[in-house]
Amino acid sequence: GHPEIFPLVLTTKTQEIFNCRVDDDVTEENSFKIIKKMDIIQDLETRANTSDFYPVRKVVQEYPGEELLLVFDAKFQYGQNFYIVASEEAKENLLKPPETAEKEEDIEETLDPFKPLVPRPWVSLGSEKEVEEEYVKDNVTKIKFKISRVRRKFGAPIAFTDKNASDGTDGYVECTSYEDKTFSIKMLEKDVGLQIVPKVRETSTQTKWTYPKNAATQYCPRQLSEEEKAESLSSEKLKEFLTSVCLRVEIALQQNEIMNAFFDDWKALAEDKSSSDGKPDVYLKAHQSFTNQQYLKDRTISCICWHPTASGIIAVSARQQLSYEEQLKLSNKSRLHQSVILLWSFSDPVRPQLILECPEDIYCFQFSPSDPNIIAAGCINGQVVLWDVSQHGEKLQKEKPVADEVVDSDSEATAAAEVTKVSPLSIIFEKSQHAEPPLVKYCAVSSIEYSHKKPVTDIQWLPGHFEDNQNRGENCLQLVTCSPDCSILFWDIPAIEHHQKPLSGVPDTSKHLDLSWKPLIKISLHERDTNTEYGPIRIILRELHYRYKTSGKAKSLSAIKTPAKESPYTEMSSSSSKNLEVLENISTNFFVGNEDGVIVFSDWKMKTDIHTAKPTQKYSLHTETINTLQRSPFFKDTFLSIGGQNFAIWKEGVANGPILQSSCSAGRYTAGQWSLARPGVFFIGRDDGNIDIWDLLKKTHEPSHFQNISKSVITFISPWTASPEQNFLAVSDNLGVLHVLEICQTLSHPASNE
């Protein structure tokens, strides 16, 4: 008649697990035990079908509350020694009976005074805590005493006599309440003398002595007859001897071809200009450092560029201190910090010379090689921005020549003139010490709709190889950008008539901001068969010589216009270019490195669907994003890739992989650049603030030297040659500090035939 009650048989082991032991934890008078539901489920998972709760596992799992009531059935009213209550209402009724029943019992007790009193279970109201607080508890560790006597004295007769306790050492024993510190004293030092005597053994031996004596031998030369000579010359033994000698001579001649036996090692030793003052021959000397609390505080430097013509001018851009994944998430959000490009001079390391205003954080930028007044940059939101700083040319004047001095012909004046050496970095700028640097606004920005959807990670100017040089000259008026959105965009810039005027066809920013700039060509990188996308991070293009034939004259890519209502990208089959024909012998190869560490070598040709063909070669060597992909300044078919914990050197035409691949380093590589002075040297920045200097002529398995530059992550590296005797290396870190280091002479002068 009680469907909420389920009898159970609990073994002794289960009673110990749940603390419900009979006559200890539960009795006939106090038969209730509260058990948590999770403890029963844990026991079912641990012991499975051997658990005593296995027959009622569904009841436990479906029980709505967190605690179940277990009752000890001492009289076996329901057939077992325990039963479980599977209802909250029945649980409350058993733990707290209705008040009416208590009142009726009280009335019956008052009406029947002769009824014996029945003891009720004691209900705790907290008084036992007060009793426990009054208890005297032992807080001090008890000291143990051990009293012993010799075994032979057990049972011996005892005779008691009077004795003074101070007469004997063992006559009085005091049992103190504390430990005697003088009871056990450790021996700290002990003098021990040992004498080691070797074992002596006598032995003897007998030797024979032969006395010296003079001796002489007489011999005569062996004379061969003519027949014996002919027989010896024709013997097989002589032929074998001559054959072996000829082989050795041939090997010696081959060795002479491999190694010059007449090489003057003493003369070649002078090429290694190692210092003799105790300093290492390979080092980077701190020259200057640049930072700005207003624009670079709590920001990381994303790109460094040296001015192509003005000596000692360096430009940097900064962005927020975010990881690569956070940059992609925030690329479409508004910026909370003013983004600028700062142009510094060696003559004034405190105040920038120019400040270029940016619509968003800049990820990369480049000066135009043909016109350094034009600067192009890629934003973190995918747009491309242009500046024209020709109106501020007085801030970036070229180096003034040192005035010629009249020197006497005497030896002292000549020696003094030779000692006095003028630094090639003595740049003179017309500036005011208290004037603020001018803020230059951008003159053009690309359309958001047709720009990249993710940050522009690399930007390059295309060289101007055109036949119609009268209209456009040799200026670099085309750009190429790449982004992790799996696209490469070619941009065309209108011709610039004069440096004092803004870009032709682009209105001044102060009047109207032009957001209609669209790319000329778009390349989408993906494999059609597998739908695999390649998000380019860095790009290397071959020497592009793209020309399109028209009626007798050649036009560049920028001369091709697209109808306004059609796609902004150039298509080979469109009506605007149906009379154009691509010239032959044109290289369309390019290299890209993506965010997955994959190097892709591909060949793009204009298609009607604006997609490239399937990549010809793909290499997965790097474990993280490719942060550096740079062509060697000495070998145009060799380039360097850096990403993750290793780097690789590639050569065009070698299809089986890189020609040199490094092992994984302990830290991450974050930046890298080739040396501009030595073909076999390049620099790599790490996440621990060190610069690894790799000299392939000395070592190829590890860097030949490393030097700590900063306590933060190295973000960008850019070399610059001031003169044949002076080379610099610009290094930026994650703290917004630009370090300019002077490269030592060992890394500035290449060896013979390097």
From TrEMBL:
GO biological process, one term: cilium movement involved in cell motility
Record localization: Cytoplasm
Entry keyword set: Cytoplasm, Repeat, WD repeat
Cellular component per GO, a single term: inner dynein arm
Cytoplasm in keyword set: yes
GO MF entry, a single one: dynein heavy chain binding
Tagged with keyword Cytoplasm: yes
Residues passing through the membrane, by range: none
The protein's name: WDR63 protein
Protein's organism: Pachyramphus minor
Gene: Wdr63
